[in-house]
Amino acid sequence: MALSDSAEYESSRPTWVALRIALIYLTLSVLWIYFSDRLLIFLVDDPARLTRLQTAKGWLFVSVSGLLIYFLVRRALYQAHAAQVQIRQLNQELELRIAERTAQLQAANRELKAFSYSVSHDLKAPLRGIDGYSRLLEEEFHERLNAEGRGFLRNIRQGASRMQQLIEDLLSYAHMEQRTLQRTSVDLNLFLREVSADCEAELKRRGGELRIEVPALRVRADHEGLHIVLRNLLENSLKFSHGIQAPCIEIGGRLEGDKAILWVRDNGIGFEEKFRERIFDIFQRLHLTEDYSGTGIGLALVRRAMQRMGGRVWAEGASGAGAVFYLELPAVLKDEY
C-alpha cells in the first residue's frame, strides 16, 4: 500500500468504525424489538400485563444501551486523551532534537569559521614566505645556481602556487556553505555577457569563438552564486580546450515549464561517460596536474552552489568529443516580472 493510500485509510478509519458501530446497534435494536415483542405476545395473553412487560422491556433496553454507550464513549475519550498526551510528548521530543541539532549546526558553523580564519591566516602566511624567499633566492643567486638548482626553485614556487590556489578554492567552498543567499530575478542575457567577457577575450586570442544563444530568460538565483557557477564552468571549458584548434564554447538555454535549462558546451578533450558523476566530487581529478592545472574543487563548488540555489547540475561528454554541462534553475515567468 502506498503512503498516500495508507494515510487516506487512517484518516477515514474513525468514520468507518463509527458507521459499523451504528449499523450493529441499529441491527441489534431491530432484532431485540421484533423478537422480544413476538416472544411476549406468544407467552402473555393478558393485554394489560403485556403492556407492562413491553414498557419494562423498553426501559431495560434503554438502560443497557445507555450503559453501553457510556462505556464506549468513555473508552474513546480516554484513547483520544492518551493519543493527545503522546502527541505532545513526541512534539516536545522533536523540539528538543531540533534544538540540539540547531546547536550542533551552529557549533559546526563556528568551527568552520575558525577553520577558514586559520586557513586564510595561519596557512597562507608561511606560503607567502616560501614563495617570497624562493623568488629572492632565484633573483639574487641566479648565476650561482646550476640548472638543476634553478629547476628545484621553480618546483618549489610552482608547489607553493598550487597550494595557494588550493587554499583559495577551499575558502571559496567554505564560504559557499556559510554565506546567506539572496535570490533575485536575474536577466540571463545581460548576466552572461558580463560573466563571459574574459572567456571571450581568451578564446579570441586562441583563434576560437564564444557563442551565446539564450532566449529572453530570467531565473531566480543568488547573483554571486550564479557568477561562481558560470565562471567555473567557463574556466573549465577553457582549460580542457587548451591545444584544440579553433576552440569553441557555446552557452545555450531554454525554458521547460517553470524551470530554465542552461548549458555550457565545448569541443575540448571531453571525458568518459562513466565519470559523469565523479567529476563533481571534491578533490576528484581525471588528469595529472602536469597536464591540466587545477585543484579538483571547481566542479564540486559548482554542484554545491546549485544545490543551495535550489537547482541542479549534470554533465554529458565523450572522450575526445567535448563536454556539455547543464544547469537547471527556477525560472521567473513573464507574469512574475
How is this structure best described in words?
This protein has helices at residues 3-43, 47-140, 147-178, 188-195, 197-206, 223-239, 298-308; strands at residues 183-187, 209-213, 218-222, 248-256, 259-266, 312-317, 323-330. The protein is of the alpha+beta class and 337 residues long. The mean pLDDT is 81. The strands form 2 sheets. It has a 5-stranded mixed beta sheet, covered by helices on one side. The protein is elongated and about 140 Å long. Helix 3 (147-178) runs parallel beside helix 7 (298-308). It has 2 domains: 44-178; 183-336, Heat Shock Protein 90 (2-Layer Sandwich), CATH 3.30.565.10. GO terms for molecular function: phosphorelay response regulator activity; phosphorelay sensor kinase activity; protein kinase activator activity. This is histidine kinase. Pfam families: HATPase_c (PF02518), HisKA (PF00512).
What would you say about this model in short?
This protein is of the alpha+beta class. It has helices spanning 3-43, 47-140, 147-178, 188-195, 197-206, 223-239, 298-308, and strands spanning 183-187, 209-213, 218-222, 248-256, 259-266, 312-317, 323-330.
